[in-house]
Structures are given as C-alpha cells and as structure tokens.
Specification:
By secondary structure, this protein is of the alpha/beta class. The chain has a single domain, classed as NAD(P)-binding Rossmann-like Domain (Rossmann fold), CATH 3.40.50. A 7-stranded parallel β-sheet has the order 3-2-1-4-5-6-7, with helices on both faces. The termini are far apart. GO terms for molecular function: oxidoreductase activity. Belongs to the short-chain dehydrogenases/reductases (SDR) family. Keywords: Oxidoreductase.
C-alpha cells in the first residue's frame, strides 16, 4: 500500500467553499490532489494554485456529475496522469430554499440529480480500483438537514438524507474490501451557500447554535482529513455532524 502522503484524493465541487478547504487540507501534507469543478474555472485554478504552493501535484478536471459519460472521461484523464484516487470526497451539491408547494418537478429532479445521482455515479465509477487494491476511502459531504430535515428545504433534506442512507448501506457492502464509507453532515458553515440569508436571518441562526457561530470550512475539512487517514480504518458507515451543538 502507498504511504498516505503518496495517495491521491479527488474532491468533487472543489472550486470554492468546503471543497476548496478540503483540497487545501490534503495538499498541506503533499498529497496528490484532483480538483473537480463544473463551471467555476477561475475559482478552481485559484484553489489549484493554493494547493500547489504546498508542493502538491494538482490536477483540475471538469465534468457534469449527472452524466456517466463525462465521469468516465474524467476517470480516463486521471488514469492518463496516473492520478486515480485512493480517496474520493463527494462534495459537489446544490441547495434549494423554498416551500415544497412551490418547487417544480424539474427543480426537484435537478436537486436529486446533482446531490444524489452525482454521488452514486462518481462512487460507482471510482470505487472499483479501491476494491481491487483492498484499500480506499469514500467520504460523502452531507448536511445536518439530511439527519433532522428542515422546513423550506424539503428537497435538499431529502437528497442529503438519501446520501446518509447510501453511506450506511455502501459501508457494509465495501467493508470486506478494506474500503471505508462515511459521511460528514455539517451544520451552518460560513460559505456562499449562506448567501441566500440576510444578516438578520444569519444572526437568528447563530443565536440557535450553542457554539454561537457558524463553522469555518477549514473545520469541516479537518474532519474529512481525519476520516481519510489510514488509522481511521475501523470507522465506517458513520454520519458525523459537526454542528456546534445545534443537533445532538
């Protein structure tokens, strides 16, 4: 087995926010880092430059994770660069705020496709080399709302709840192959996903959180990094929620 710092990590949706913080955390120890993005080319390049400043080998790739064909092309590119991932972080996703009665069928399908189908397709495509190698880490970025549900976020909560169930079931399936599967389900994190709330709404949310503040992306990245470590190999099928005591 390769040493930890010689391994490759693929982070989907890594151009900014939590994904970018995860990429930087792995690059800090010199690992090979693959930064996936859909449209945010410049942001992905900025994250890549930050990772390369640590001496990491970095590759940026674009793909629509709703398309198996595009994921296959992404995998072929990674194979060409000898950067097939030992660690897969399924971070790409979108949120949606609004009453269920106002969501169109097209919006519902899109939320499910990006958050849930994309995780399924990426995992299915990249888990086979891990099974062959009898080693791997799959870490899914979920949400506190996938555990407890949230009013006006029914579609998003449903998609993240599906990721949690996917995580638990797949962990049992892959455990005999030495591959762990876990999910990180953050509470409120200070990223662009909070841009839909005004300052008064943000303050109200902070007041509900026992820690009295939002999480920083780097704090979520540290948990993802911990779950990827070789010594975390007995942790699998877990939904871990860093939420400042918001949900206990």
């Amino acid at each position: 087995m390769k040493s930890f710092t010689q391994q490759t990590v693929l982070i989907t949706g890594a151009s900014r926010g939590i994904g970018a913080a995860i990429a930087r955390r792995f690059s800090a120890v010199g690992m090979n880092v693959v930064i996936h993005y859909l449209q945010s080319h410049e942001a992905a390049n900025e994250t890549a430059r930050s990772c390369m400043s640590h001496g990491s080998r970095v590759l940026t790739v674009t793909a629509d994770l709703r398309s198996r064909e595009q994921i296959i092309r992404m995998q072929e590119k990674l194979a060409h660069h000898d950067m097939i991932p030992d660690i897969l972080v399924n971070n790409a996703g979108v949120s949606h705020y609004g009453m269920l009665s106002d969501i169109t069928e097209e919006q519902w399908d899109d939320i499910m496709s990006i958050n849930l189908k994309g995780t399924f397709l990426s995992t299915q495509q990249f888990m086979q080399p891990m099974i062959t190698n009898k080693y791997g880490r799959i870490i899914n970025v979920s949400s506190i709302w996938g555990i407890s549900g949230a009013s006006c976020e029914v579609a998003y909560s449903t998609a993240k709840g599906g990721i949690n169930a996917f995580t638990k079931a797949l962990a049992k399936e892959l455990a005999p192959s030495g591959v762990t599967v876990n999910a990180v389900a953050p509470g409120a994190v200070d990223t662009l996903m909070m841009a839909g709330f005004d300052e008064q709404e943000k303050q109200a949310i902070e007041n509900d959180i026992p820690a009295g503040r939002f999480a920083q992306p780097d704090e979520i990245a540290s948990l993802v990094y911990f779950l990827a470590l070789p010594e975390s190999g007995y942790i699998t099928g877990q939904i871990i929620s860093p939420n400042g005591g918001w949900l206990t």
